[in-house]
């Protein structure tokens, strides 16, 4: 995060907001990544498959295009500890199911719609995330 700037943060946030508004405006869908991605697993709903694949492909391709256009280096590198990554992924997936959505669905779209569930979910996962970072950095020593 050494190269973080207000401009890059505002630009990224604006792009996320525009994507969420476009998805809602054009398709009437909430830009919740966990819901979009989970529907790509069988059984498939053929009517919804095209826009979901396009959306997820955009999530993968956009950083590559940014890298090619700007020449910027990756902001973060994956952890080399595969078991830790697997456990973390399972916990995030469990949390998304338990919370009936993810940070994008609740944080970006749910708060904008004043969803009561999102008004509870967002502070909950923000506090839990802060506690996990504190424990990993200061208790476990990661």
Averaging pLDDT over every residue, what do you get?
Answer: 85
> Total strand count, please?
0
Q: What portion of residues is helical?
A: over 70%
What count of helical segments does DSSP give? 6
Report the sheet with the most strands, covering strand number, pairing sense and barrel closure. Answer: none
Radius of gyration, taken over Cα atoms and rounded to an integer in Å: 17 Å
Unreliable spans are: none
Shape annotation? globular
Query: Structural class of the secondary elements?
Result: mainly alpha
Number of domains: 1
Q: How far is the N terminus from the C terminus?
A: 17 Å
H/E element order: HHHHHH
How much beta, percentage-wise? under 5%
Question: Describe it for me?
Answer:
The chain is mainly alpha-helical. It has one domain. It is built from 6 helices and no strands. Helix 5 (103-112) crosses helix 6 (116-140).
Would you summarize the structure shown here?
Helix content is 74%, strand content 0%. The protein has 142 residues and is mainly alpha-helical.
